[in-house]
């Protein structure tokens, strides 16, 4: 069972308001010929030169046409009747008894056109879908796209679409009664509300409690107020009232628990996250950040923004050498499930740190962006989930979330190296993905609905994928240098990073055995390969691993019980690697299952020449798999701008990788530290010698350049 099937409040995130990065950020971007700094301050490490010339000479990079094309999103829009329903009304409903909302899905037809589709199955007698035609999540994010496009371009059509989708969204918001401020998720094409969808989604009815759709309503209302504050004060005042209606609801629910903590597998987690999610809370925080910027003296909104971002930052976990490598975890009921579906947490924390003047919040965004994201990309790209092993599809939502987080954190932390990663990530839309074909078409504004692990694409272009692709395109259009470098990347040549070796591939000595449970879902995470190895005291397990040209960190994935069960000692042919606890997961608390499935760190790295890892159990142990992490991982991309490689460190000290420099070329490189800031080259001759220097926990961008 997957996470999405278990956690009913379906997450779907948002993008950050396009950030106009100034020269002070020192844009250091790969791909555009040689890597360059737009403006390095005096005394800064030497920047690459030649990007401007390369951009001018390349048709792909010199393209000035906007990438943002709203045609398909507008095709998804439909006119929605707003019938008289108790507790549901909207701005000027008597004068305008209709609004606009996007259909949830768009299925691609054989002739290449698209058909608009609702959620679930269609009842031909009523014309109703078992879920609905439109949903509050997509309406909210559609409003944000049109708001940003209008603000960025002055397009009046986008302004009108923003007004109408905000009117539609606020109609779904329950305005009176005990559920005031909560939101009905689904609506039919004839305007009928569907408070209880089939299959059931929680909360049920959908406006009976806070939810992801409440969080996204706050996001859209916050950005809407900021946009209309000066141009349409009356409409802005309406949006402000509705924003406070939802804030009042949140204060009665999750935010009313601010400062208290729940226990999840022995770890204290914030109890005041919306629907228990850093993902949902982050999206609300993005809207509040826009609103508080516009109305800085609104104490209730500022307080809510502060509380939410403190909770989100509190979900930061791991380090460069400890799983999940600095990621902000999305769900307070699992320590071992990270997902990109709602992955805007670093963008929210980085943005709020600037709005609130809270530099202490920024660390969580930096570790997620500068340490976790490079490991994610090196493991095969922006997968939708690690649970805890990588291995899910890649979708526009998750890709856009990474781009927004990197761009926002680069600006807030003055960390230009993160923009290199943003360019590589955005290249996914232009072909640098497991399928190899573009995932977004700027000529039509369509975006594929996902890429499976084997490279197969889902050719449909539903609202969510379209919305998040457009959010990235708006960000690229707002940042021409970043846009140029991203367009210079259209193919991923290779990724060498985190890999998985199943425990059941090993040789068991003793009475242990392979166990295949009815479901791989534990209640908090997924067993890799659907099975694990049960060991008893004295049993051994020898797991084969490929040889490598470098040392590797090893993370045995152990399904730990709550009670003590001894330890398992791990070694290779030439080295004692360390031990892992078989139990001691901590009190279950609010989680849905006792124990935890977790990749545990070992004290020593596995030598590159060793081809097996052996564990000897000192008690009952459940071993699922092993994660193997090179001390230096790589992502190699190419395109109109040429071939570049990002080297990512998981080492505790500066290291070097040797590359072959062909005659007539030189090696251009820029190293960044563990927070994405430039570091001076350790060896000025390194580029001639072919040695790429990678700072501990940091990353280096390198390119072979013709002399």
What this model shows, in words?
The protein has 707 residues and is an alpha+beta fold. The protein has three domains: 3-40 and 69-489, Alpha/alpha barrel (Glycosyltransferase); 499-630, Galactose-binding domain-like (Jelly Rolls), CATH 2.60.120.260; 651-706, no CATH class. It is built from 17 helices and 38 strands. Helix 7 packs parallel to helix 9. The longest helix has 20 residues, at 233-252. The protein is globular.
Which residues form runs of ≥5 with pLDDT under 50?
A: 1-62
How many separate structural domains? 3
Tally of individual helices: 17
Q: Measure the end-to-end span.
A: 54 Å
Structural category is: alpha+beta
Which strands sit side by side, in order, in the main sheet? 20-32-33-38-35-36
Helix content, binned percent: 25-40%
Secondary-structure arrangement, i.e. CATH architecture of the largest domain: Alpha/alpha barrel
Q: How much beta, percentage-wise?
A: 15-25%
CATH topology call of the largest domain = Glycosyltransferase
What characteristic shape results from the CA principal axes?
globular
Largest sheet: 6 strands, antiparallel
Average predicted confidence as pLDDT: 90
List key phrases describing it.
single chain; 707 residues; alpha+beta; Glycosyltransferase; Jelly Rolls; 6-stranded antiparallel sheet
Outline:
The chain folds into 3 domains: 459 residues, Glycosyltransferase (Alpha/alpha barrel); 132 residues, Galactose-binding domain-like (Jelly Rolls, Sandwich), CATH 2.60.120.260; 56 residues, no CATH class.
């Amino acid at each position: 069972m997957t996470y999405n099937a278990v956690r009913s409040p379906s997450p779907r995130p948002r993008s950050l308001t396009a950030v106009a990065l100034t020269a002070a950020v020192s844009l250091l971007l790969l791909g555009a010929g040689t890597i360059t700094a737009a403006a390095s301050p005096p005394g800064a490490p030497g920047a690459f030169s030649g990007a401007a010339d390369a951009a001018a000479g390349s048709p792909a990079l010199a393209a000035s046409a906007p990438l943002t094309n709203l045609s398909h999103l507008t095709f998804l829009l439909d006119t929605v009747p707003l019938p008289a329903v108790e507790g549901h009304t909207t701005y000027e409903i008597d004068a305008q008894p209709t609004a606009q909302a996007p259909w949830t899905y768009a299925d691609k037809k054989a002739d290449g056109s698209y058909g608009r589709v609702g959620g679930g199955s269609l009842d031909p007698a009523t014309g109703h879908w078992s879920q609905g035609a439109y949903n509050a999540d997509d309406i909210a994010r559609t409003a944000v796209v049109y708001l940003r496009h209008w603000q960025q371009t002055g397009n009046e059509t986008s302004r009108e679409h923003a007004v109408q989708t905000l009117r539609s969204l606020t109609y779904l918001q329950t305005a009176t009664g005990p559920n005031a401020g909560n939101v009905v998720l689904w609506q039919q094409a004839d305007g009928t509300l569907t408070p209880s969808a089939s299959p059931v989604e929680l909360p049920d009815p959908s406006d009976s409690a806070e939810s992801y759709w409440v969080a996204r309503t706050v996001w859209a209302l916050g950005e809407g107020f900021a946009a209309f504050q000066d141009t349409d004060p009356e409409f802005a005042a309406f949006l402000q009232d509705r924003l406070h209606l939802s804030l009042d609801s949140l204060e009665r629910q999750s935010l009313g628990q601010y400062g208290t903590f729940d226990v999840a597998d022995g770890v204290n987690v914030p109890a005041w996250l919306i629907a228990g999610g850093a993902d949902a809370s982050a999206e609300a925080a993005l809207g509040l950040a826009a609103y508080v910027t516009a109305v800085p003296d609104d104490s209730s909104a500022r307080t809510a923004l502060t509380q939410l971002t403190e909770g989100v930052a509190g979900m930061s976990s791991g380090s460069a050498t400890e799983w999940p490598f600095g990621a902000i975890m999305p769900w307070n009921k699992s320590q071992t499930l990270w997902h990109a579906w709602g992955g805007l947490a670093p963008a929210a924390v980085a943005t709020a740190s600037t709005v609130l003047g809270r530099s202490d919040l920024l660390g969580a965004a930096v570790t997620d962006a500068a340490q976790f994201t490079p490991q994610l990309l090196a493991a095969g790209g922006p997968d939708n989930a690690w649970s805890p092993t990588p291995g899910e599809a890649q979708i526009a939502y998750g890709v856009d979330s990474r781009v927004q987080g990197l761009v926002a954190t680069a600006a807030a932390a003055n960390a230009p190296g993160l923009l290199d990663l943003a360019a590589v990530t955005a290249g996914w839309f232009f072909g640098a993905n497991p399928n190899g074909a573009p995932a977004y078409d700027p000529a039509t504004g369509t975006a594929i609905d996902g890429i499976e692990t084997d490279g197969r694409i889902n050719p449909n272009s539903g609202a969510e994928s379209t919305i998040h692709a457009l959010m990235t395109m708006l960000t690229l259009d707002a940042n021409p240098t970043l846009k140029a470098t991203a367009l210079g990347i259209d193919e991923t040549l290779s990724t060498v990073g985190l890999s998985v070796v199943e425990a059941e591939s090993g040789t068991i000595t003793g009475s242990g055995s392979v166990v295949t449970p009815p479901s791989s879902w534990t209640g908090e995470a997924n067993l890799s390969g659907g099975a694990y190895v049960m060991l008893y005291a004295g049993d051994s397990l020898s797991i084969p691993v490929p040889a490598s040209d470098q040392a590797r960190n090893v993370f045995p994935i152990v399904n730990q019980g709550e009670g003590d069960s001894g330890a398992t000692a791990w070694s290779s042919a030439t080295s004692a690697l360390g031990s892992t606890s078989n139990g001691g997961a901590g009190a279950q608390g609010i989680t849905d299952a006792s124990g935890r499935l977790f990749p545990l760190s070992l004290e020593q790295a596995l030598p590159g020449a060793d081809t097996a890892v052996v564990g000897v159990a000192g008690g009952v142990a459940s071993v699922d798999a092993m994660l193997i992490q090179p001390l230096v991982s790589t992502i190699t991309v190419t395109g109109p701008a040429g071939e570049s490689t990002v080297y990512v460190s998981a080492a505790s000290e500066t290291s070097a990788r040797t590359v072959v420099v062909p005659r007539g070329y030189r090696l251009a490189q820029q190293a960044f530290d563990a927070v994405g800031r430039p570091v001076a080259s350790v060896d000025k001759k390194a580029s001639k010698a072919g040695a790429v220097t990678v700072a501990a926990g940091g990353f280096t961008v390198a390119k072979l350049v013709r002399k």
